[in-house]
Amino acid sequence: MNQNEISNSGTLAGSIPYLYASYEVGVRFGRVAVIDPTDDSIVTHIPVGSQPGAMCMDPLGNKVYVVNTGESSVSIINTENNKVMATLPVGRGVTALAPAAPTAVIVHPFGQKAYVANSNNHSITVIDNRTNKVLTTLPTGVGQPFAFAVSDNNPLVFVACKYKDNKDYILTISVDNNSISTFGMNSELTFDPPHNPLVIHPDGHTVGVLGPNGFLKYFNGATPGEEKNTSVLDNTVSGVYFGSAPAKLFTTSPPNKAYLKYFEDLSIKASGEITPVKLRDIKSYRGQDQIRVCPNPEFVCITVQATANTPCGLQIYNEVGTVSQFIELYYAGDLTITQDSTKAYVEQRSVIVPIDLATATAGAAIDISSGSSDSNVIIKNIVASYETQNSGTVVSS
Q1: How many CA atoms lie within 13 Å of 235's alpha carbon, on the beta-carbon side?
Q2: 87 to each of 67, 113, 131, how far by Cα in Å?
Q3: What is the pLDDT of residues 306-341, one digit of tens each?
Q4: Which string of b and e fits 243-265 if b means at least 16 CB within 10 Å?
Q5: What are phi and psi of 329, to 5 degrees?
Q6: From CA 103, how far away is CA 53, in angstroms rounded?
Q7: Does the global pTM surpass 0.85?
Q8: Phi, psi of 231 (to 5 degrees)
Q9: Strand partners, 242
């Protein structure tokens, strides 16, 4: 599994979940707009905390978690009635002058626990997904947590922490007992928040860490094994792993590179041997940003930021990267894909543009403030399905 999988509770009469968009109204108020993807109409607006940011669904689609960066809290939305069922404080020793600044959130596929990365607080808050109660808050050390990756074939939560270039590192958290381990401290890692540097092979044994210096680490369940730097992952930024026999991995490149990397069967064995891999570069554009894969997974989507010689837009590839189409847009922010894999949605500051993936055509922009008195809105995050990766900016007070 990768960005988007696991069945949902059927918030649309047993079919696909609604689309949720967190947004700011000025600097004090936060909302979440709920959108029906069947006709792209606004269903309702849900008040949440100030400066809402990253969101995630739980594996069954029963809840949406929303981090409130301006209030050091997380709101939990019941997707059956689209009302906030709980708002929980996050972080430890939080004060007005030292906020937690939650920046990312994820629920492990086992469904038991949610995890909130408190960037400014150097901590991870663990929440019981069944009772909506805070279980504990764990220290992350000198680094600021900003990105998560999880797998239904691995009982750990992987956390990317930003400290300083060549000194960034990864934490693992046991879903079973909340124990923490660290790796990558001596691998000269450099991350680029908010881009997520973590990818997990679908079998759960191989964890890839992307960046100027890429490497792979083996896990047998929660037990760590060998790790090795590998030049094939050098100069990568973010990626998605998906499928089986062969498992596929797409990775984005730094802003000055006009290609993606495509891998088949890239993994590391318990012995530390890296399996022979099929690798090729795929023509793309400079300015690659967000990357997502469809749940089915028929398409891989990448947003592209405008550069001197590159238009802004959404690039859509088939699952092996041999066919692509490009939809030019005036702006491309956050990106999400519906559970049924028919549509991508691209955030454009105050509106969201739906993209039909089969025809590679953009629909009419959705004004998320429609039907409300809100004005001067700024969209922060959009989510339309369960995802196994989540990331946000590094925030310091």
Answers
A1: 12
A2: 10, 16, 12
A3: 998 889 999 999 999 999 999 999 999 999 999 999
A4: beeebbbbbbbeeebbebbbbbe
A5: -135, 155
A6: 7
A7: yes
A8: -65, -20
A9: 248
